Amino acid sequence: MIKNIGNYRQTILYGISLAILLLLLRWLELRYVILAHSFEIYAGAIALLFTALGIWLALKLNNPKVLTKVIEKEVFITQTANFVLNEQNLIALKLSARELEVLALMALGKSNQEIADQLFVSLNTIKTHSSRLFEKMDVKRRTQAVELGKKLSLIP
Amino acid sequence: MIKNIGNYRQTILYGISLAILLLLLRWLELRYVILAHSFEIYAGAIALLFTALGIWLALKLNNPKVLTKVIEKEVFITQTANFVLNEQNLIALKLSARELEVLALMALGKSNQEIADQLFVSLNTIKTHSSRLFEKMDVKRRTQAVELGKKLSLIP
DNA sequence: CCCAAAATCACCCTAAAGTATGAGGCTTTT
DNA sequence: AAAAGCCTCATACTTTAGGGTGATTTTGGG
């Protein structure tokens, strides 16, 4: 439960110092037979000392209040650099992984034939994918699909 | 106001340990038939009191150190919102005003026929514009032209 | 294991995009 | 005035894109 003794070291040291002080006073009392009227002096000294100790303790123990200042800093970010896919939109459109892949390649300006070559499938397959893609996205052309895809953060 | 008691636990523990210490001294006093010099008790009480006073003083007077924590909050700025045309790139490519206009409409996903209708010219004119556009931009397809146009900040 | 969705491919057809070439009118620059 | 550049349009042609239909295989979840 108490992991770090270090936190209580000050308290322990303080207690020890108090004990030593009291013993010292006791010793002085016995040694020099302190007169009763000098009690006020001791009391004052003790008061002063322990006030200082209290202050020191409080300052040590009091965690500095951290005032978090949130400063809005306008950061221009190329949206390609830190692109995060909007999964909500993706799910909403019910696009399959392959369809999204085709869309991404379309956005790069690739032709259907180039996409087919890159994905190692036939041209007809890409045509089928693109058709389904346009149907799901409710667009008529690939340029519209790309435009909408970027707006919905489906592609960078 | 004081949210975390945990900060003061050490202080409380210190008070308790002090009390125990005093009791111990009292017990020693009785044990060894120490004369009823109540000086220690007074000293302890004063010590306790003024320690508390010191703590209280310190907490009252101590201005909380304001640790300004600057958190850079990234504000995403849609590039469409504050689009500025990169005239250098435009001049470098030697695009005419009409060609840029056609490119912008292409970027919106419009077909050549739609662009022709919108600009009140014939389909063939748009084809000519687009051909020259692709030639100047050194691209083969409209999707590539749009991609490059956005990259070069020719269009939002 | 079975079913549904996804992925794959083919064929045919139409629409759109893109290329090539030529040409007339218009403005700006030299 | 001539040259150059831009905008316009046309015709003819090729390529690419896209729609419709049908089919097979793969795959993930109940």
Structural commentary:
The structure is a homodimer of 156-residue chains. By secondary structure, chain A is mainly alpha-helical. Chain A has 2 domains: 61 residues; 65 residues, Arc Repressor Mutant, subunit A (Orthogonal Bundle). In chain A, helix 4 crosses helix 6 and helix 5 packs across helix 6. Chains A and B meet through helix 1, helix 2, strand 1 and helix 7 of A and helix 1, helix 2, strand 1 and helix 7 of B. Strand 1 of chain A pairs parallel with strand 1 of chain B. The structure holds a DNA duplex (30 and 30 nucleotides).
Short descriptors:
156 residues, Tscrpt_reg_LuxR_C (chains A, B), DNA-binding, membrane (chains A, B), disordered N terminus, mainly alpha, Arc Repressor Mutant, subunit A, homodimer, DNA-binding (chains A, B), rod-shaped, Sig_transdc_resp-reg_C-effctor (chains A, B)
SSE map:
Two copies of one chain form a homodimer.
Chain A: H1 6-32, H2 39-61, E1 68-74, H3 87-93, H4 97-107, H5 112-119, H6 123-137, H7 142-151
Chain B binds a DNA duplex (30 and 30 nucleotides) through residues 96-99, 111-113, 121-125, 127-132, 134, 140-142.
Q: Outline of this structure?
A:
Two copies of one chain form a homodimer. By secondary structure, the first copy, chain A, is mainly α.
Query: How many independent structural domains of chain A?
Result: 2
Question: What structural category characterises the helix and strand content of chain A?
Answer: mainly alpha
Helix count, DSSP H or I runs of 4 or more residues of chain A: 7
**CATH topology of the largest domain in chain A, anyone?**
Arc Repressor Mutant, subunit A
What's the assembly state of these chains?
homodimer
Q: Average pLDDT of chain A, to the nearest integer? A: 75
Roughly what fraction of the amino acids of chain A lie in strands? under 5%
The number of strands of chain A is: 1
Helix content class of chain A: 55-70%
Q: Using the 3D structure, state the CATH architecture of the largest domain in chain A.
A: Orthogonal Bundle
CATH homolog superfamily of the largest domain in chain A: Winged helix-like DNA-binding domain superfamily/Winged helix DNA-binding domain
